Structures are given as C-alpha cells and as structure tokens.
Amino acid sequence: MATETPDTTEQLYAEIERTPKRYRPLLLRLVHSFREGIEEDEPWPTAAESFREGLGDAKARRIQPISTLWDGIDAD
User: How far is residue 49's CA from residue 44's CA, in Å, rounded to a whole number?
Assistant: First the structure.
C-alpha cells in the first residue's frame, strides 16, 4: 500500500470541507468502514498479485462483457 505523503491529510480535510454537510455522515460511515476493512489481518494484494488473479480469471473465462456490468442495477 502506498505511504502517506505529507499533504495527504490536508487533502482529506479539503475534500471533507468540499462535501455538502448533509452528506458528511455518509462520508464518515464510508471512511469508518474503509478503516475497519484495512485493519483486517489479511494484507492487500500487490499489483502483480492482482494482475495474476485477473489474468487467471480471464484464462478460466470467469469474465463478463463490460457492457453487462450494470445490468439489473436498478432492479428491486
């Protein structure tokens, strides 16, 4: 995972300030869920590992056309 640059925190604060106040509770939930997810014991895969997994999926034909990606998204 990338290391934090000195201005990352400032950029985060700036994005929060740009977020309409009515959406900030949702943003807080999102950040909280993200933090909990990265605290799990399982490390994030490297780019090479992700590429190998994607290539394996493609070779095994575990793929879908991108045109079908959002099919049914608005279904109840």
Answer: 9
